[in-house]
Amino acid sequence: MRFRQLRRILEKVVLAGLPVAMGACFVDEPDCYETVQRSLTAMIPADPQLQMRIDSCRVDVDACNALCTLALARAREPAPQSFRCDVEFLGDVVSMVVSYDVPTGDPSCPVEGRRPDGLAPLRGLRATSAAGAWLAPAAWLEAASVHAFVRLANELERHAAPRALIRGALAAVPDELRHTAMMTRLARRYGAVVPAPEVAAFVDRPLEQLAIENAVEGCVRETWGAVLALWQSHTARDPEVRAALRMIADDEIRHAALAWAIDRWAVPLLDDGARARVASAREAAARELLDGGDAPSLPVLGLPAGAELQRLARRTQLSLWNGGRSCHA
Ligand SMILES: [Fe+2]
Ligand SMILES: [Fe+2]
């Protein structure tokens, strides 16, 4: 499958879901996101600015977020982009609980990026906002993708792959460096620190292992990363995020098309058993995305969530992964 053909399919998948349609919600996937809570208190009577927000919250629950935002600022804690604020009035005491979701950084969660073999789990993530907590692992995965493509080029060379495939893998390295820089800048803007990926030394592998990794990381995950980036390039409220994701989406579609071309070359060289194992790894990866947890509701980043996310994954599956089209169609 070539770049233009794949881009047409993915644009159809994304555009079919716009404008946003809301429906039933998923339950959060605990492995991908955890809820952070901050407890704050205020005494009544408070200073005029705080008292006005307390009074507004007492009569209008929708006004309570403004109260929590001010209380967080007074406590010198930045307000997350998206949070829930629960307020209780107990005599002279106003008790506030601010809750928001942050990714755990589990690399099996569906965020864009090709993971190299031997990538250690994300550690040392620090973020002061939910948007930063999403952007930092995304930037970390972009940095990991640099390692993945350098290794892929070397591996393709060792397996005597066609020059065009090796050139494609090498051309992806500067793309991923650019993505890392863009996502890291955005993550920092949203108060996050991006840890460097740790990757174990490369060990020579048979072609079957390369084909399995390519099917999972390229045909499924990078393709899904391209779908998400395309979606966010239309829906993110932050114009800088939209612009960055627009550029990343095009590159990721090219990387996904490369993965499909590698699959088309590698799979026919394998025996029947190995081909079946590649197919089953690809199906399991697609299934993992389809059964995966919900994403946080972060309008600033335009992430699809709930039923919207489910529909997007299903349309991708029907159009590419098992809609009569195998990875090497
Ligand atoms: Fe990337
Ligand atoms: Fe990529």
Structure report:
The chain has 9 helices and 5 strands, in the order αβααβββααβαααα. The C terminus is likely disordered. It is mainly α. The chain is elongated, with a radius of gyration of 22 Å. The strands form 2 sheets. Strands 1-3-2 form a 3-stranded antiparallel β-sheet, covered by helices on one side. Strands 4-5 form a two-stranded antiparallel ribbon.
Task: Give a quick precis of the structure.
With 329 residues, the protein is mostly helical. The chain has 9 helices and 5 strands, in the order αβααβββααβαααα.
Beta-strand content = 5-15%
Strand arrangement, largest sheet?
1-3-2
Helix count equals: 9
Shape: elongated
Q: Sketch the topology as an H/E string, one letter per element.
A: HEHHEEEHHEHHHH
N- to C-terminal distance: 7 Å
| Low-confidence runs | 20-31, 323-329
Distinct small molecules bound, one entry per kind? fe (ii) ion
Largest sheet: 3 strands, antiparallel
Count of strand segments: 5
Structural class: mainly alpha
Radius of gyration: 22 Å
